[in-house]
Amino acid sequence: MTATQTPTTSDTPDAPAEAEPSRDEQHGLAGLLGTGDHKDVGRLYIVLALLFGGASIVAGALARAEASAELGLFSTSDAFSLFTASEVGLVFGFAVPIFLGLAIYLVPLQVGAATIAFPRAAALSLWLWLAGMITLIISYAIDGGIAGAEVQATDLGLLALGMVIVGLLIGAMCVATTVTTLRTEGLTLGQVPMFSWSMLVASALWLLSWPVLLGNLLLVYVDHTNFATGPGQPSQQFAQIAWGFFLPQIYVVAIPVLGFLGDALPAFARRRQPSRGIMYGAIGAFGFFAFGAWAQPAQGGDIMSEPLIVVMSFGVALPLLALLGGWVSAMRGGEPKLAAPVMAGVVAVVVLLVATVAGGLYSVEPLEVQDTMVTGWGVPVALLGHANLVLAATAIGALGALAFWAPKLTGARPSGLAGLVALLGLVGALAWGIAPVVQGFETQVSELSDAAEALAWVSVAGAAVMLVVLLAAAATLVSGRSGDVADDPWEVGQTLEWACPSPPPRGNFGTLEVVRTAEPLLDERNETSEEER
Amino acid sequence: MALPSLAPPPEVQRPRVLVMGTVFATVAAVMVFAGLVGMWVLQRTAAFNAGQDTLPAGVSIPLTQPNVMLFGLLMSSVTIQWAVASVKNDDRVGTYMALGLTILFGVAYINMTAYLWSIMGFEIAEHTTAPLLYTITGAHVGMTVIAIGFVGLMAFRALAGEYTSRHDDGIVAAAIFWHAMVAVYCVFWHAIYVMK
After folding, report:
1. Potential cystine with A146: which of A84, A247, A467, B18 (Cβ 3.0-4.6 Å)?
2. Predicted-complex ipTM score
3. Does the residue A25 lie in any domain?
4. Which residues of A touch B34 (CB under 8 A)?
5. Which residues of A are less than 8 Å from B21 in CB distance?
6. Can you give the CATH number for the domain in which B108 is found?
7. What are the φ and ψ backbone dihedral angles of A257, each rounded to 5 degrees?
8. Range of A317's domain?
């Protein structure tokens, strides 16, 4: 028995992409702009997210250096604008879209679908997000953006950020609908690959929480355009939306990392993931603890000193530990191979675990970590460090995911570079995130006041290393060993994406047999080896 | 004597892609209002605790118009459900009438909201609650416009014969979004117009 019959051309009768042969034949810019193929949309998302991610890291490092060392490169307000641009760029320009792009590309392959649900909406999502990001950059360039000095440019920036969020929400809706409705025959929701499951959880969390931020933005916009005295005032704007970039909401960007490692680690251990239901539940629980729309300090009350925030901040570590236990049990009975994607995935989860500890410490009010602010920004330095740790985990996880699925994305097997860079990324992530967290203990350890500038420079150095991680991720997409790549060049794939050609043709699959387990390709290999015996 | 024919095999369950997609989009739309109405309630509670009114002196929001709007939107929920029932029964005329009435109720709601804004006399820069009030009510008008567009599109598709008792996804999806729009109004009708 074979799980699939590998197609050479797309002949799936109900593939929407096949309904428009004339458009499919378009090449060049017209083909790119008019594409409804989920793979083109996903690739564009990934490449552009890496670009915006790199720019955001540079902006954030410059702002941090200016705020701490007073280099004289920017005024205080410009440094703050750079900081807000960096936060917006890292979350909505990089961390969310890079995994959304990967999901748009990969989830239909993982669930055995010919295309993504609402392919044109997925394309709209990309172009809306891109147009929003470009407009946002322009608004920042003309002294607008969030909390800018120019009124009309600030309005433009607020609208642009709204566009960005709406674009991403449309993409999340497409991904969630694909997982819930377009699974191939026999594949139940309890058998979907971990990455698809994690994207369902992440999409659900994004659809539940980012619209709340959109509501905040709308309020800021209405207030600002009418010169009212509420949250639209420049000094209030970032405070109104800051909850979207920090503890606990920031964890929502890291959910897909868990799904990637959940697929890659058992595959390289050549073993079925035991206690699969618990793993699904743990990813879902991580999402639950990551929901942060309720914790908005700008709405009055001292929300960061509430006992619930302490419970949520420490609680988020529990599902991570459960996942770690599950992965260890998968490796124990298998033949684990320390391939580059696994190394990157493990490093990402270690950084995420460190972030949960940092977040937990931050939430304990008696430690007074919340009291040390970045000069001139009104943002606790430890909170910034915590966000950096989560974003670093996401970046390293993205590097691993791109390395793992590079054969599907590019038709080339990547080199082992990603593993080494991930190890370097561990150092960079800790420097980028831990240094500000340590600085947060300034009120407890007075000596740290003297070391504030040095710690800021350590954080800037960490940001530079994270830039290298993003460059390595980009290199993964272009520097692979091309040639006639097999469907599964790693020879460990367990899920359906490894049953179609690398890269997949339009329509993805030919005919798929009824799927009966969560690891159809592993079953197929086992049956083949039994028959050979 | 005619022998009873064998029953046809059951159809393969078609994935309700449009319905699920609409559910996800509707949840997102509802969350926009969940956040905003939550802010309103917090502001009201803070004002109440400080012994102040939510609205500035001289501003009064009449309850007549909001009540009429509530009644109209509840009626529209009935008519959109009538459309769903009609399409499930292959009653085309009933479907068109129900969808048309639903759109009419939606337009009437927008009209009444605009009238309410004009008679409230609440300048947007006058008080900190004004931007929030106009954001919530304005965003809801936006949601209603989207819902009208959705229902209108599905009505045109129904006119083209796309929806039948075996394929009613579009009408069901439009009904889900419409009901959510009405539910959101019910919540802020109480939070803003009744409790103030």
Report:
1. A84
2. 0.91
3. no
4. 212
5. 117-118, 121, 173-174, 177
6. 1.20.120.80
7. -60, -40
8. 33-532
